[in-house]
Each structure stands twice: as structure tokens, then as C-alpha cells.
Amino acid sequence: MNTLNYVDFLDRSARVAGYRKALIDDHGSYTHAELANQTNRIGNALIAKGFKPETPFAVLSPNTNLAMISIIGGIRAGGAWSNINLRSGVTIIKDLLDRGGCQALFFHSSVADQISEIEQGVEALEFIICIDKEINGYPSLTQFIEDAPETHCNIYLPENGVGFQGSTGGTTGAPKITQAGQCLLTYSALAFMTSLTDFNQNTPPINLAVAPITHAGGFVALAVLAFGGTVVMMVTADPEQILQNISVHKISLIFMPPTLIYVLMNHPKCKETDFSSLRYLISAAAPFAVEKIARAHEIFGPVICQSFGQTESGFPLTFISPETVTAALSNPAQAGRLQSVGQPTITTSAIEILDDAGEILPPDEVGEMAVRGPTVMFRYLNDPEATKAIQSNGWQRTGDLGYRDKDGFIYISDRKRDLIISGGFNVFPLEVEQTLLQHPAVQDCAVIGVPDEKWGEAVKAVVELAPGTEVTDTILIALCKEKLGSVMAPKSVDFIEQLPRSAVGKVLKREIRKTYWQNKKENI
User: Fold this and answer.
1) Each residue of 112-141: b (16+ CB within 10 Å) or e?
2) Terminal CA-to-CA distance of the chain, rounded, Å?
3) pLDDT, mean of each 10-residue run, the chain (524 residues)
4) Which pLDDT does position 519 carry in this prediction?
5) Measured on CA atoms in the order 407, 410, 416, 422, is the torsion positive or negative?
6) φ and ψ at 84, to 5 degrees?
7) Crossing angle, helix 7-16 and helix 32-48, to 10 degrees?
8) What does the alpha-carbon distance between residue 72 and residue 77 come to, in Å, rounded to a whole number?
9) Parallel, antiparallel, or unpaired for β 410-415 and 420-422?
10) Separation between Cα atoms, residue 432 and residue 232, nearest integer Å
11) Is 431 helix (H, G, I), strand (E, B) or coil?
12) pLDDT at 296
């Protein structure tokens, strides 16, 4: 089957919007025409040195123009982009690159101290390029592409060719490596393009890249570039700088995890920031607390939206628009939709709720979410048993418990592995967390099961407070009892300065559980 490659979008942008700014960072900018030229040069340089289609490559860098250019250059050569997060730590990075067979690594000089260890630990590595300067004997990107032409690479990756290698979050052990086609990039971009209806080729988005572009933030950036839009890079997610950039660059699109949105809402300069250019504030990676959605709507305007995705299945798989969120805030009959991650995107996925036998459940019944679509992975690399465990009858199970309503809106109840069974009753931590987040003093929280002689597991809340606030455990427990009843309410609350988070901002419940389950039997 003949299918689009992602770079076909970029070639169109270069032709119809070549003059428009594509990338902006602290060191300068690139137009769409310049982006096409530079990425073709990288692709041609790799090909000239023997780089073959489906060969894994990675970019280890904060958000910069040259990092985005390197990602696209590797894609142009037909490579399999291995999305490694800078904040994962050198041991995890080295392991992922080695198991993934990474052959080319583009890195930023800020992580130069890690490269020698990575080089020694990754057997397949042949090309190591520092994107911003020559350092420690490694050539700069400028040197690497010095003799490479700007001519079109003209590499086509077929539908069954591996164009993406993803690393799972690793919140329950060593990260797995997924393998998918370039369709994952192409259709993820299309899913955003068809969902963000305020934008088109003539009025494209201006995206502030806050989340790492080497992970989920890169999917948003790729969609924006496919639109012919502009990506403004941020090296660090500094809240004050985010607010300033929104005003200076007239940002219209931001993707952030809810934790960072909560931090912005509590920042003293938030009240004086001009958000009039903003059209979409996309929340993903974790559920957005309903009470905080209402406050975010007041602060940022009618721009709040949510999506859901995962490394194994693509991003976004679902989308709920600002219009739907705004309607749900004003219409009590639709208020329940504020707990939804939206409806399946048109171009990416079919989503159903399955029981343990693999049968499709009717509306409003909780089961495991499963996905079909062009962005679903082919396999876990070198792990056929793990692949078989989640794939059957064309469906790929997500590991998330949830349900759909009669209108096709998807609701996530919780991660299947996070379910707490206390005294024989099922407790969904997400429901308790959503209730706790209603209190203005709670900036973020995690609810877990801890050992209990009587109940097997007892519900415990671990709470991170908003700056300058106080609240007692008694008040929070009483809030949950009032809203959810005694079974669901935490039996205890611990306060923590900062919850442990993964490189993409997800709360690491595994790390929290370790504190309470030492020398106990539990699948942490």
C-alpha cells in the first residue's frame, strides 16, 4: 500500500509557506524553506555514510532548533526515530540505545559529559554528532553536513518499514522499546491537524515547545510544522519564561502536562499575562482535575482541551475541544464530560472498551481500553510475549481501565495496575485524586494502596501542596468521605515537598509505593 511519509507534509510547507518562520530559539530562526534545505542535507549526509532506511537514530538535547532539525533529518533518511528523553538519566539512555540498536546519535553540548559512557555502552553506534559545536573530538552538525547537498533525499519508507522506536515510561520497571511505522508520525500529525480546527495553512499555529520535543512534545511540534506553522523552543520549562513567551511570540498553541499548568496558575505573574493569542492549551500525560479545569478556563480563557495517547498506540488517540469543555462548564447536563479525554480522533484510532475475554462492552461499563489504527505499534522489540499479551483480534490493549458514554466520549477510570482492592472493594485512585485536587491547597497528589492487616490494602494519599498554602490530613480525608464515601476515602495522608516524576512529567507511583511496601509482597 502506498502511504504518505511524514516529510511529504514538510515539503508541502516548504513550497507554500517557505518564507514563514518554522523554528525559533534563543540563537535564531529558520524558515520552512531553510528547514527543508537543512534537513535534506542531514539526510543526504547520513545516506552517503551508509545509513540505511529503518536504521535507529536518536537525538539527545534540550528543546532547540538544531535538535528539531536533527530529528527531521534522520526521518528524511528513512531512519527509525528513537525518542530518548534527556532527563531519563545516562544509565537508562545507554540501555535504551543499546537494546534499540541505535546507529546515529545527535547530541547537544550540554550533555557532552555523558557521551563517552554512552559510546562505550552502545555497541551499534557509528555516528556521534554534536549539534551545536565541535566538542571532545565529536564533529559538529555543521561539519557533518559540510559537503552534503540540499537536494531532496527521495527516500520512501513503506508502510511496514520501522520509522519509530519509542521507549515506554518505565514506571513499572525497565522501559520497553516499541517499534512502529512512520505512519505513527504521519497520522499523529494528521490527528492534530484535523482536531485543531482554528488553524489552517493560511493561519497556522504558533506553538510554544515547553514539553520535550524528544518525546511527546515532538509530536505536537511535527504537527505544527506540517501545518506550515511556527515552533518556539524553550530549553527549560521555567514558568515565568513561559508566561513571557506567550505574550512576546503571540503563542496560540501549548501542550503541557497538567502539573505544569497547575504551577502556571499559581504563579504571581499569571494574572498580568496577556493570553489573548492563545487558542489551545492541550493537557495530556495525566488526568486534568475537574475543579482545576474550571479555574484554568477563568485564567487562560476558552482554550482548555485534553487528549490521550501512549507510546505503544500513538498520540493523540482522543481529543476534547475547547468548545466542548466550555459547553460542559456552562451546561450542567454536560458537566460529566469534563472528566473525559474526548472522542477518538478521526484519522488515528478506533477505541473500544473490552472485557477480560476480549468482548466489546456496551456504553458506561468499565473495561480495558483497546485501540485499532495506523499509529499502533508493530511490536515490542525482542519481546514477543509482552507483544502477544496486549495484541489480539486486531486490538491493542492500552492497560488503561475506562468506559465510553453513548456519545462516544472516552473516560479513563485508572491504570489497570493502579487499582486498589481494599476489603474486597475496588478503589480507583484516579477518582480519589480528582476529589483531592478540588481543594485549592492541593497542587498535585498520588493515591496508592499500602499494606493493611485488616483490609489487605488501605487507601493512602500522598499530597504536594500549592506554594504558600496549608491543609490538614483531617480536612482532606473529610472531603473525600463527603464526596466518595468511607470506602474510597484515604485512611491516611502524607505530605511531600515534591512528588517523584518521570522524564515526561508523570507521577511515579512505583517510587512512592517502594516507601510503603518494603519487605512486603506487592506488584509495585
Assistant:
1) eebbeebeeebeebebbbbbbeeeeebbbb
2) 43
3) 86 96 97 98 97 97 97 97 86 92 97 94 96 96 97 92 86 78 95 95 94 92 97 95 97 92 91 96 84 92 95 94 96 93 89 94 94 95 94 92 94 80 77 90 91 82 93 94 87 92 76 78 47
4) 58
5) negative
6) -100, 130
7) 140
8) 9
9) unpaired
10) 37
11) helix
12) 95
> What amino acid is encoded at 83 in this protein?
N
Name the helix (H) or strand (E) containing 231.
strand 230-233
Q: How far is CA 119 from CA 45, 83, 123, 143, 185, in A?
A: 21, 17, 8, 20, 28
Q: What is the pLDDT of residue 171?
A: 43
Burial of 291 (C-beta count, 10 Å sphere; 0-12/13-18/19+): middle
pLDDT at 503: 64
Instruction: Output the pTM of the full model.
Output: 0.85
Contact residues for 168 (Cβ-Cβ < 8 A; gap 6+): 175, 176, 177, 178, 311, 312
H-assigned helices in 228-271:
239-248, 258-265
Number of helices (H), then strands (E), belonging to the chain: the values are: 16, 26
Q: Which three cell numbers stand for residue 363?
A: 456504553
Break the chain down into helix, strand, coil percent, rounded to 5. 35, 25, 40
Q: Which residues 6+ apart lie within 8 Å of 222 measured at CB?
A: 6, 72, 185, 188, 189
Contact by Cβ (8 Å): 184, 219: no
Q: What is residue 157's predicted lDDT score, i.e. its pLDDT?
A: 92
Cis peptide leading into residue 316 (ω within 30°)? yes
**H or E segment and range at residue 94:** helix 90-99
* Residues 379-402: b if buried by 16+ CB within 10 A, e if exposed: bbbeeeeebeebbeeebbbbbbbb
Q: Are 145 and 41 in contact (CB under 8 A)?
A: yes
**How many CB atoms are located within 10 Å of the residue 244 CB?**
13
Q: Which amino acid is at 54?
A: E
Contact 82, 122 (CB under 8 A): no
Residue type, 318: T
The residue written with cell numbers 485499532 in the block is 372
CA distance 79 to 99: 16
Other CB atoms within 10 Å distance of the CB of residue 434: 22
How far out from the chain centre does Cα 457 lie? Answer: 31
Alpha helix ranges (H) inside 370-508: 384-390, 429-436, 473-484
